[in-house]
Amino acid sequence: MDRRNVDTDAIFPKQYGRSTARSGYGPVLFDNWRYLDPGDLGSDHALRRPNPDFVLNQPALRGATVLLAGDNFGCGSSREHAVWALRDYGFRAVVAPGFGDIFRGNCALNGVAPIVLAQNDVRALFDLANAGVLTVAIDVHAGTVTAGPHVFRFALTARQRLLLTQDIDWIGATLSHRERIAAFEAERLARQPWLARMFPS
C-alpha cells in the first residue's frame, strides 16, 4: 500500500465501530477503498462489488499476512478497531517508515508487529514487491526482515517482543513478571512491616 498518511478511519471506517468484540472486522478493512459500493452494519460484504484497482483485491496478494505501507501509517484517531481489523483480516505485521504513535502501541497489544524501517529500505521492499518478490520472513527476536537475499534491520522494545511472541496483552505482560513482583512485595514488607497492618491481604 504505497501511500502516506493512511489514517485509522481509512483502515476501519467509523460506521462499523459499534462493538468492542475484537473479531469480525476483516471484511470491512479498508472498506471505502476495497469496495465499489458503500457498506453499513447490515451489509452482506460477500455480495458487495470489490474494487479491482485496490491492492488487496489483486489475486496474488489475497491472504497476505504482511502489509507494506507508506510513512505515518495509522495516523489520526486512536481507533483500536483499526488494528483489530488488520489482525482479523490476517495481517501479523505492518512494515512502514513510521506509524501514528497510538496506532503503533495498539499493534503490539493486539498481535500485529509494527515494523519501522528506514525510508530507503521500505522503498527497496516496494521495488522488490513490484518485481514479484512477494514473500518476506520477519524475525522479531533478531529484528530482521528478509526478502530474498536482502536483509533489513529494525528494533523493537523488550515489551513489544514479549507481547508479540507470546500473543498477550499488557496484563499478561505484567503477570509474566509475577515472581519479581512477589519478591519486591516480600522485600518491601520486610523493610516496612507496618504496611501489612495498614493494608491487610
UniProtKB/TrEMBL annotation:
<dbReference type="InterPro" id="IPR033940">
    <property type="entry name" value="IPMI_Swivel"/>
</dbReference>
<dbReference type="InterPro" id="IPR000573">
    <property type="entry name" value="AconitaseA/IPMdHydase_ssu_swvl"/>
</dbReference>
<keyword id="KW-0100">Branched-chain amino acid biosynthesis</keyword>
<dbReference type="InterPro" id="IPR004431">
    <property type="entry name" value="3-IsopropMal_deHydase_ssu"/>
</dbReference>
<dbReference type="Pfam" id="PF00694">
    <property type="entry name" value="Aconitase_C"/>
</dbReference>
<comment type="similarity">
    <text>Belongs to the LeuD family. LeuD type 1 subfamily.</text>
</comment>
<dbReference type="InterPro" id="IPR015928">
    <property type="entry name" value="Aconitase/3IPM_dehydase_swvl"/>
</dbReference>
<dbReference type="GO" id="GO:0009316">
    <property type="term" value="C:3-isopropylmalate dehydratase complex"/>
</dbReference>
<comment type="pathway">
    <text>Amino-acid biosynthesis; L-leucine biosynthesis; L-leucine from 3-methyl-2-oxobutanoate: step 2/4.</text>
</comment>
<feature type="domain" description="Aconitase A/isopropylmalate dehydratase small subunit swivel">
    <location>
        <begin position="3"/>
        <end position="119"/>
    </location>
</feature>
<dbReference type="GO" id="GO:0009098">
    <property type="term" value="P:L-leucine biosynthetic process"/>
</dbReference>
<keyword id="KW-0028">Amino-acid biosynthesis</keyword>
<comment type="subunit">
    <text>Heterodimer of LeuC and LeuD.</text>
</comment>
<dbReference type="InterPro" id="IPR050075">
    <property type="entry name" value="LeuD"/>
</dbReference>
<keyword id="KW-0432">Leucine biosynthesis</keyword>
<keyword id="KW-0456">Lyase</keyword>
<protein>
    <recommendedName>
        <fullName>3-isopropylmalate dehydratase</fullName>
        <ecNumber>4.2.1.33</ecNumber>
    </recommendedName>
</protein>
<comment type="function">
    <text>Catalyzes the isomerization between 2-isopropylmalate and 3-isopropylmalate, via the formation of 2-isopropylmaleate.</text>
</comment>
<dbReference type="GO" id="GO:0003861">
    <property type="term" value="F:3-isopropylmalate dehydratase activity"/>
</dbReference>
